[in-house]
Design a protein that fits this description.
Elements: H1 6-12, H2 20-27, E1 38-41, E2 44-47, H3 52-55, E3 59-62, E4 67-70, H4 71-76, H5 87-98, H6 104-142, H7 161-170, H8 174-182, H9 191-213, E5 219-227, E6 233-245, E7 249-254
Antiparallel strand pairs: 1-2, 3-4, 5-6, 6-7
Organism: Sipha flava (yellow sugarcane aphid)
Protein name: Zinc finger MYM-type protein 1-like
InterPro entries: DUF4371 (IPR025398)
Length: 255
């Protein structure tokens, strides 16, 4: 847009029709054409002086209309006869000076957005790590292997199946490796965390089996009891039932 056509464009199309970059460009290019204006002031005839643009920073002109205007009022709307002191003009001046500058609410909003992005990334990492630990728990349970070893400190040659499997996975999974080396708050290797993961997996499986048992016609129950070396009684209960699944035929479950 040519500088001499700016005021005519603003008067006909409006400032809001422009892009953010165009608005900032117009702010830096206030038209200051030489106008052939005269007015009768008593016995004197006064003519337009171009140095008025320097004296009044809000002043602009349109050579096509051969008129002068308030630049900020042309941009933001409104009419004012007493420029630089009217409330309307002061508001427009404030908008004009803030145009193109970084505003605190924008900075805060961007900071919140970045914080949310970082938080979501960390949540995704945490879910991936927990998923790996759950896979280890499910594998050990399926294979009926013990979780913990006799000694699980760093000097131990065998820290138990759970920790050894995590370290094995960490050799190929860089995310898990970095977590095990750097995490100081939640590492996922303590006895309490192992027990919590076992309880969570057990709860999910029990819920699945319970829902399936409600739908079958026949269930076989087998119970067995034994006493361990500490004379503590332990009982195992086995449920056997048949489940019909689409495209899979008959599946026999027991737990």
């Amino acid at each position: 847009m040519q500088k001499e056509n700016i005021i005519e464009f603003l008067l006909t199309s409006g400032f809001n029709a422009l892009t953010y970059e165009q608005k900032n460009q117009i702010k830096l290019n206030r038209p200051t054409p030489h106008l052939l204006l005269t007015c009768q002031d008593g016995k004197c005839i006064r003519t337009f002086q171009k140095n008025w643009y320097s004296k009044f920073p809000w002043l602009t002109g349109c050579d096509k209309r051969n008129k002068v205007f308030c630049f900020t009022c042309v941009i933001f709307g409104g009419k004012s006869e007493k420029h630089a002191i009217s409330q309307n003009d002061l508001t427009n001046q404030e908008k004009f000076h803030l145009l193109g500058k970084v505003r605190i609410e924008h900075v805060v909003s961007e900071g919140r957005r970045l914080a949310a992005v970082k938080h979501n990334e960390q949540v995704g990492i945490n879910r991936r790590l927990i998923a790996l630990m759950i896979h280890v728990v499910c594998f050990l349970g399926k294979q009926e292997l013990a979780f913990r070893g006799h000694r699980e400190n760093n000097e131990s040659l065998n820290k138990g199946n759970y920790l050894e499997l995590l370290e094995l996975l960490a050799q190929e999974e860089q995310l898990l490796k970095e977590h095990l080396l750097s995490s100081a708050i939640f590492k996922g290797t303590s006895k309490m965390i192992q027990n919590n993961l076992i309880e969570c997996v057990t709860s999910v499986l029990n819920s699945k089996f319970f829902n399936e048992i409600q739908k079958v016609n026949y269930v076989s129950i087998q119970a067995d009891e034994t006493t361990d070396v500490s004379c503590r009684s332990q009982m195992s209960i086995i449920f056997r039932y048949v489940v019909e699944q689409k495209n899979c035929g008959t599946i026999y479950w027991f737990f």
